[in-house]
Design brief:
The chain has about 140 residues and is of the alpha+beta class. The protein has one domain: Alpha-Beta Plaits, CATH 3.30.70. Helix content is about 20%, strand content about 30%. The strands form 2 sheets. Strands 1-5-6-4-7 form a 5-stranded antiparallel sheet, covered by helices on one side. Strands 2-3 form a two-stranded antiparallel sheet. The longest helix has 17 residues. The protein starts with a strand and ends in a 25-residue tail after the last strand.
Length: about 140
Amino acid sequence: MIKVIEMAQSNGDAPSQRIGNTVLVVTMEVDEADDEEFNKWYNEQHLPERMAIPGYVSARRFKLEGGNNNNALTYLCIWEMEDGSPLESEMYKDQNAHPTELYLRVNETIKARTRGLYQQVFPEPGTSFEDRSGFHGERLAAHP
C-alpha cells in the first residue's frame, strides 16, 4: 500500500492534478533517521525547483507502507511532464550543476534510487480513466 505524502494544489475541497503525456518515476531509499531532512529537501527545495522548469506539469510524492512489497524503495515521486524535453533544458542542467548545501547533505543519505521516463501509450495521451460516478462500492473481479 502507498501513502500520499504531498498532494497537488487543490481547488476548494477537491484536489486537482494536471496530467502530461510523459511521467518521470523516481524511487528512493533513505534510512528512517534521515527521513526528516530528506523530506525537507524534497518538499521545500527539489519540488519547487523542478516545477519552475517549463514542461513539468505536476508532481506527487508517496511513501511505501506495509511489509510485503517485493523490495520496493520507500519513497516514490511521479512527475507529470508534457514530454521528456525538460530533462534536456538549460534550466535543468543549471540546477544540477549548482547543488545546494542541503542537497549535498541529503544526497549522501540516499542509499538507492531508480528513475524511469515513461511515455503514455493508453488511453489517448493527456487523458486518463477516472471514476466520475461517485460510486466506490464493490469492484468486479479481474478476468483470469
